[in-house]
Write a structure and sequence with these properties.
There is one protein chain. The chain contains eleven helices and 19 strands. The protein is α/β, with parallel strands linked by helices and 397 residues long. It has two domains: 140 residues, Lyase, Ornithine Decarboxylase, Chain A, domain 1, CATH 2.40.37; 242 residues, Alanine racemase (TIM Barrel, Alpha-Beta Barrel). Strands 4, 13, 14, 15, 16, 17, 18 and 19 form an eight-stranded mixed sheet that branches. Helix 2 runs parallel beside helix 3 and helix 6 packs parallel to helix 7. The protein is elongated. The chain binds pyridoxal-5'-phosphate. The site of pyridoxal-5'-phosphate has 17 residues, from helix 10.
Length: 397
């Protein structure tokens, strides 16, 4: 029985008797050259995902604008690849993200800023930089209005009002959270913008992470609501649908992908004649990344076979923080038969520092390498130096 679930092998990632390779490069050799833990990214895969998304919107005849959510992965070669696409902007959520986007070559008007709980210091920075903001509190509207010329355009971020993220996972659903204006606060927000001398020319929503096909109808409900609010804005030019697509962590996952998104957007928002914007992170980079770690401990304790590795939740926190599954493959023997269930734990002094429990894997020995995937989004960008176990190593192919 193969340990490689067919869902993630392919598209640059190959599982063969000789071992795992990514874009033709052996992961074993890359680890030997650069050390572990090591994030390996396929830039070709990032470009393919951008091409697919662009083609999906273009084929609907919809005016559209793509922004890459750089919070997903800000490794310089990844940002340079997005820049190289030419027609993709950046979604930034902090002054430093904005500054990094500018450093990478993006003009201020190619960057869409959507941030929450903005300080005066943040607003001063964005005003000085001529940034365009999507705002989600009356406080931020009032304070932004005092800093920018009358007539400055802003976006309003709305709460999506439904639980739509990955399996309605509480940490991944954005309905009725700290983000955005509630639907019944829309009029007050528009009024506050007018009073502050600002013009609302766009709407924004981000529905959560990992939206699956089964929740597509909820996504469409949000789009229809947005269309209704947009019709009430005389100056509306665009509607930004945020991100939330493309997350696949298990064979059974069935994420909404570019085609369905563009099709639904065309149906609900097309008649308005507005530009449909989106700002995906996961969809563009998650499947383009793999994390290679080294096994340092194989030991049974109270009936559990523990596999200890040289990375912890400081390097990749999907499992520990969100409780999300991580796929694990043997780098040298990806096709070897399953030997039994093991639990894979990291090297951080926290009891929740566990990548997988009772996962069927082939026989593993100390010194072996494992690949954790997908690992292109929210891996290195959320890494920390907890226990002084950082920083992470990253390479781009
Ligand atoms: C406002 C906003 N836009 C876009 C994204 C990107 O989301 P995803 O990686 O699910 O595409 C996020 C992620 O948290 C976000 O908060």
């Amino acid at each position: 029985m193969s340990t490689i679930p067919a869902w993630w092998a392919g598209n640059g990632l190959r599982a063969e008797a000789a071992g795992l390779s990514f874009d033709g490069r052996s992961l074993r050799e890359l680890a030997a050259e650069h050390g572990t833990p090591l994030y390996v990214y396929s830039l070709a895969k990032v470009r393919r995902r951008v091409d697919e998304l662009r083609a999906a919107f273009a084929s609907r005849g919809l005016p559209f604008r793509l922004y890459y959510a750089m919070k997903a992965n800000r490794f310089r070669p990844v940002l340079a690849t997005i820049r190289g696409c030419g027609d993709v902007g950046i979604d930034a959520c902090s002054p430093r993200e904005f500054a990094l986007a500018r450093e990478t070559g993006f003009a201020a008007d190619e960057i869409s800023v959507t941030a929450s709980m903005l300080s005066d210091r943040d607003l001063d920075f964005f005003a000085a930089e001529g940034a365009g903001l999507n705002l989600d509190s009356l406080s931020a509207i009032r304070r932004w209005g005092r800093r920018v010329p009358r007539g400055t355009a802003i976006g309003l971020r709305l709460d999506c009002a439904v639980d739509i993220g990955y399996g309605s996972h509480p940490k991944l659903a954005y309905g009725n959270t700290k983000f955005g204006f509630a639907h019944d606060a829309f009029d007050a927000a528009v009024e506050a913008a007018g009073a502050a001398g600002l013009v609302v020319d766009r709407l924004h929503v981000h529905c959560g992470w990992g939206i699956q096909r089964g929740a597509l109808h909820k996504l469409e409900w949000v789009m229809e609501k947005l269309a209704g609010f947009a019709r009430r804005l005389p100056d509306v030019r665009s509607v930004n649908l945020g991100g939330g697509l493309g997350a696949r962590r298990r064979a059974v996952d069935d994420p909404v992908m570019a085609e369905e998104w563009a099709e639904a957007a065309a149906r609900h928002l097309g008649p308005l004649g507005v530009t449909v914007a989106c700002e995906p992170g996961t969809l563009l980079v998650d499947a383009a990344g793999v994390l290679v770690v080294e096994v340092n401990t194989v030991e049974e304790k109270s009936g559990t076979v523990w596999i200890g590795v040289d990375a912890g939740h400081n390097v990749n926190l999907y499992a520990a923080h969100y409780g999300l599954p991580v796929e694990i493959a043997h780098v040298d023997r990806p096709l070897a038969p399953v030997a039994g269930p093991v639990s894979v734990a990291g090297n951080i002094n926290e009891s929740n520092d566990i990548f997988a429990r009772d996962l069927p894997l082939p026989a593993i020995e100390e010194g072996d390498l494992l690949a954790l995937l997908p690992a292109g989004a929210y891996g290195s960008s959320m890494a920390s130096d907890h226990c002084l176990r950082g920083p992470v190593r990253e390479i781009a192919l």
